[in-house]
Amino acid sequence: MSNKIQKLKPDTVLKNYWRNNEQFADLFNAVLFDGEQVIRPEELEDADTEESSILEHKEYAESIQASRDNIKISKRSTVHGVEYVLLGNESQQHIHYATPMRVMGYDYGTYKKQYDSNSKKYKTSDGMNEDEYLSGMKKTDKFIPVITVVIYYGDKVWDGATTLHGMLDIPEKIVRYVNDYKILLVEARQNDLVLHNMNNVDLFNLLEIILDDRMPKYEAKKRAIQYGEEHQVDKSVVMTVAGATNSKIDYNAFEKGEVTMCTLFDEIAKENEIKGRAKEIVETGYEFDFSENDILVRLQRKLDITLQQAQGYLNMFKKQAV
């Protein structure tokens, strides 16, 4: 196997896809406004995804670091009366049972960054009363609201909490006193989003086909290839499907513009075949007491792969072999 076959990093692929303003705006219009074109792509600007902040207490200060997948600022006074809105999206391949808490942390970090930036304006108490100066903000200061959408790309039904309350064991009598925090969750495997951007339409349609666990894999493959041919799916969508499903793809074909759903499934089949042969080589090597260096050499020679790829297969199968 040539080293041109590489594994796409899901987070990188998905970040790149949603960095596109047209696709990003279409997603949020579908989630927030049932497809009404409220957020305009030309009015979106990229914002800093780093949400590091400091939690301060009288006796300690704790640093929290978090980085969103994508966050954009919508500069528009007509977004339901709000002058600016910060829009962020997060991608999940697996069910994360602490997602409401994570999103709450991301949003807090965004608000804390705004607060810190705003408070730097007030180096003295000039024009401020005592309470405002101690607060680090004037009574009239307002921050930009934050909206986060979580997209889940797994093939299982999301069975995690979608609110902070869902993560807590709260006695009935005090539920109303415990602040809640909800998430906006989109399941790629099944949703009712009203999308207008054709790349988004194709992306979610293909993921719904591929992630449908009620359908045999061979049938899903057949339907996905047929869909790709009938709709002439853009290669960026195929690459995103590959990333979202944690698959491998031929970069050489991508550079030539030859990537199709058929290409994607061919590479998945090739990779499964290579994995099986690699497992056999590693297990045989340990059975005959070969050194790890000898096994690496055999993997490279027999599979025509790089040392880095051979090391990956050795690490993958060595625990099963010893």
What does this structure look like?
A hairpin with a 4-residue loop joins strand 3 (53-56) and strand 4. It is globular, with a radius of gyration of 25 Å. The strands form three sheets. It has a five-stranded mixed beta sheet, sandwiched between helices. The chain has a two-stranded antiparallel ribbon with strand order 1-9. The chain has a domain at 9-199. The chain contains eleven helices and nine strands. It is an alpha/beta fold. Helix 5 runs parallel beside helix 7, helix 9 packs across helix 11 and helix 10 (292-303) crosses helix 11 (307-321). The protein is 45% helix and 15% strand. The model is unreliable at 1-6, 51-66 and 250-256 (pLDDT under 50).
Radius of gyration: 25 Å
Task: Tell me the series of helices and strands, N- to C-terminal.
Answer: EHHEEEEEHHEEHHHEHHHH
Structural class by helix and strand composition: alpha/beta
What's the overall geometry? globular
Taking the sheet with the most strands, its summary is:
5 strands, mixed
Report the total helices: 11
Helix content: 40-55%
What low-confidence regions span 5 or more consecutive residues with pLDDT below 50?
Answer: 1-6, 51-66, 250-256
C-alpha end-to-end distance: 26 Å
Mean pLDDT: 81
Q: Tell how many strands the DSSP assignment holds.
A: 9
Report strand %: 15-25%
Sequence of strands across the biggest β-sheet: 2-5-6-7-8
